[in-house]
Amino acid sequence: MLEVVFSDSAAGTMAVAIGHKGFLGGATSVIISDGTVSKEEIEKFQHQAEERERSGWENAIPLEGNRKDIVNLPLALSVGNISEAGICLERESALSLLLSILPDMASEIVTELLNTSRKNYATLLEKAQNGEPIRVWVGREPDDVCGLYWLLEQLRPIGFEKLDVTIVELPMWETRPDGCIVQYNGWGEVEPYHLGRMASLGKKLPTNYLRSLANRWRELQQENSPLRAVINGKLVSVSETLYDTFILRELDTLDDEFKESVLVGQVLGKNQLGIGDGWIALRVEQFIKEGLLVPITTPAPNAPIYHRMLKKIK
Length: 314
Fold this sequence. Notes:
Layout: E1 2-5, H1 8-17, H2 39-58, E2 70-72, H3 89-98, H4 106-129, E3 134-138, H5 142-155, E4 165-169, E5 174-175, E6 181-182, H6 195-199, E7 203-204, H7 207-223, E8 227-231, E9 234-238, H8 244-251, E10 257-259, H9 260-271, H10 277-289, E11 293-295, E12 309-312
Domain DUF3658: 202-293
Organism: human gut metagenome
Pfam families: DUF1835, DUF3658
């Protein structure tokens, strides 16, 4: 079975999950907010975290399969031009735009993402044509939902009636045995030992539903807006200014001079928009062009552009 995901983080989680049936061990971190916790308490929290992981693996339902069957398509399809089929120059342009926040590494990362996607895409088409079942892991992020719709449109020539597609949806929330409520923003945040159990909750998609999702992608292609977002559970075309309200609201909470990274972090941390730092940083760049903000320091070499100080212009 092909395991389709739409981000490097999700692919990494799945690579750990497949084939592992016991406690992995490794580094454990504890975040302390006020600095008042003793060394003994920190060690206690670390021990609890390790025991939780050990118990998780001991009670896990194994995720059967082969790592070679992980199909990662990190194409950021919620951003940019989508008028063309397949993986074309428009995707390179969109990825280059998002990664322009990392000027010293953007070209290398874009090349890697495109090479990964194109290789996996070719494998997917070949195996799907031969009747290989496909399981798509979809979160609530726009990139995941766009990825699903896009994928089905690419598979249309095979014939929807010939496809065997199962979808595994990221749960809104889960209750741990200790009563703690956990909310995930994406598949990359899920502990690997949970994937086997979650895979058992997958639903096979009927032919007409596959067709309807692919048809919706065609509609989005015709609209070809700068962004796509999930609003009230529906994937829709939206303006590039969609997230500006969230940015401006957090901007109001900051001093006249502030770290741009703090602004980006607050927007993403408080609002769980399902997008990455790239688009938020690009909108801040637009605010600078419009004269709302001005940089007063420059980022260090190899650092994202938002690792600098900004000043509000009154």
